[in-house]
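Data deposition worksheet. Section B asks for the primary sequence of the deposited chain exactly as it was used as input, without tags or linkers unless they were present during the calculation. Section C holds the resulting structure in token form. Section D is free text for depositor observations; keep each observation to a single sentence. Incomplete worksheets are returned to the depositor.
Section A, Depositor: J.P.
Section B:
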Amino acid sequence: MHSRILFIATALAIPSMAPATAYADDHENSMYIAVIDDIPSTTMAVRLLELAYQRLGLEMKTLVAPSRRALMMADNGKLDGDLFRIESVAAEYPNLTQVDYPLLEGGLFAVVRDPNAQTMPEPGDQPLKVAVRRGVIIAEQTADTLGMEPLHTESYEQMHQLLERGRVELALVSDIEGLSPLTSDNWNQFTVLPEPVIRFKLYHYVNRRHGNLARELARVLAELEREGVKDDIRERTLEEQVNGDW
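Section C:
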């Protein structure tokens, strides 16, 4: 994982952690942002946001935390923000301010065991059992919308095991900007259905005390895309994925 990611237990022991959330009052030059580990798109998002914060004279420091806990800590101000989430998070966590420029875009894909499958399995008398990564809100919401029975996992490896052992009929896995766990050879034994179940955009979120900063970040992210910096970061990260560098 990215070399600058710190473990959250260590970070919370640092006395300066609390003032880091008071950007508006103390003008701290560091922002502590929660991230989910072992998601390939995290690397691209971290690189892009580090540059955006640098242009605003700030250093972004990343801290690994479980997905739901990360959201709560950003919402209650213990952290300065959350790396990325879907748009609906803005309504569910009122203390988080959305940076109003899409950070990344992706699709949620269904993965099944049937090598000839082209469409989603048909439900029988019981709801389809589906493996979802805990805290990946788009997957959890989609499973609920489709009337499926979700089995939550803590990692993509666990999702793979559930599908391999026949504990679930399918898994819902994201592909974000071409970055996905599905590129690993471990998933070759399964079939990824050709069309995404749903497409989505991911946004960066900061605690509401950084509302002014959110507007500036949106402006800088737009600049980075116009300048081709985002494309460069995507290509570099995709190359690392192909080479198995992480």
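Section D:
The CA atoms of residues 167 and 193 lie 19 Å apart.
The radius of gyration is 19 Å.
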